[in-house]
């Protein structure tokens, strides 16, 4: 494939009414004051790594560790965010671009900031000429989104990393000081992760050889069992290893070098976030990839895979994810066995990227639904239930006689969180799914852990404050698309009487309640706005998808459905301009944070007045007046900034006016 394009993007100046420098401090302070009153500790944006914007230089995908990511973080902080909820950040393949199909330990090389490699800091190991020739044209449009170009990106990064490694070696051979300094870091990386990276590199080469990650169909027995046989010093495996290194050693070395660069940039971005007091919440995959199963064969239960009993085309969802062998989780003396060590290392690896974690499919760590892959028989598109063998592991005592899965949470997961100074209540726990009695007993009753309150389906009025609350997840439509669906409009969670009453419950504001109800009946945009006001009254931990915040009317991933556009949606490079232009339009779909927070503050005031009326009925009117007087300055500031963001700015008619708004 020819990947030789010059980036010719030429941005048209925008004159939307964005916040001016002298307004930003007061604006941010008003948002923080509102969050404090509402008891909100974390506002995180759900934005997976590839969804980050480019920085005027398009390599096909975004990166959470780029300079563009640093600029986005500054923009988010201004608007009240202090965290981002990432997706998994492992290596993905051309055949499966979902981040949930990626590796656990190998980092996604598509997240490397290639422009860094052209700088003196990295010894200019990537030539400017190559870099510029690899860049893709960025389409010029007025949309507030674009799409990742994964297949172009794979080609771009393969070329760039191979050249960077080759140039690095050449500069090292001639004693280049920058290359020597970089090599010290590279040597330290190899001492720490070299064996793991070599094994991952071998898997990548063999996957390319066979054209599939499905190890079972690899032709050579020695390839299917290479790592295990190498550990046993089998002569056939040693000969095969030497053969692979002779044929593809440069590719494997370039892969390892790419892992080093990715690791280095992750650390640099982490240092930046520490200074900015901004958190990345890394998504801890429930499962493992085929590469980990191939490398750590003895840690997995042979013949069984992880799934879900409902929601798939066949009835159950057959995820095909390898299952840790319960008998290998712990040794007889209670110490960690090979499966337990692998799980602990997976959690530790997640903390190398982020300061906190999202525990994906918590059920799978306690009472996973597993199936015998040899019992899967499909005839005419239907699963043969008479042959299918599956259940939660608590119901399969012959596989887990010592109930080791029931020990994972308290023996492995919670201790690692505490080692990283994370209160388990402050991690993000995805407790959705088909829960079992065993799960409920361990998760809720014994450990009293939080979960997810997803307002797409639920009301926020009785949500536990420690739950993580969101309207929609990475698998949801943006709210502006949700609200147009019949089942959503007719659900109790979106009921207009509920929303109008819950958010305006002070009896003295009955007129405002009726007007509020009429607005959300007449306008889908107002209906969505009401759900986000509800969101900010629900929990101390709030999440908002990037599509919802920026008002993007496209879906990032259609959960449970195949689509050529799944996992590709991303912010455009001009996101700040398009955000402000959206807010000043006649039908803004982006979130006006001071407007949302003003509604949430008023809703909480109403709730306090109603509660005070129950506790001190004789003093209600006095307390109402006192609260209104106390909160009026904050409400006025939020209202002022909400209106500023709605201001329509004039088109510049001359250079002087253009200069004023530029």
Descriptive overview:
The chain is 46% helix and 10% strand. The radius of gyration is 27 Å and the shape is globular. The N terminus is likely disordered. An eight-stranded parallel β-sheet has the order 12-7-4-2-1-15-14-13. A four-stranded antiparallel β-sheet has the order 6-5-8-11. Strands 3-16 form a two-stranded antiparallel sheet. It is built from 22 helices and 16 strands. A hairpin with a 2-residue loop joins strand 9 and strand 10. The two termini are 40 Å apart. The protein is of the alpha/beta class and 662 residues long. Helix 1 packs antiparallel against helix 21, helix 15 packs antiparallel against helix 16 and helix 15 crosses helix 17.
Task: Give a short overview.
The chain has 662 residues and is an alpha/beta fold. It contains 22 helices and 16 strands.
What's the arrangement of secondary structure elements?
Layout: H1 21-38, E1 42-46, H2 67-78, E2 83-85, H3 128-134, E3 146-147, H4 150-173, H5 177-210, H6 221-224, H7 226-231, H8 235-276, E4 279-284, H9 290-295, E5 300-312, E6 315-324, H10 338-353, E7 356-359, E8 369-372, E9 378-379, E10 382-383, E11 390-392, H11 408-419, E12 428-429, H12 437-446, E13 452-454, E14 468-470, H13 479-482, H14 486-489, H15 496-503, H16 510-522, H17 524-535, E15 541-545, H18 546-550, E16 569-570, H19 575-583, H20 593-615, H21 620-646, H22 655-661
Parallel strand pairs: 1-2, 1-15, 2-4, 4-7, 7-12, 13-14, 14-15
Antiparallel strand pairs: 3-16, 5-6, 5-8, 8-11, 9-10
Helix pairs in contact: 1-20, 1-21, 4-5, 4-8, 5-8, 10-11, 15-16, 15-17, 16-17, 17-20, 20-21
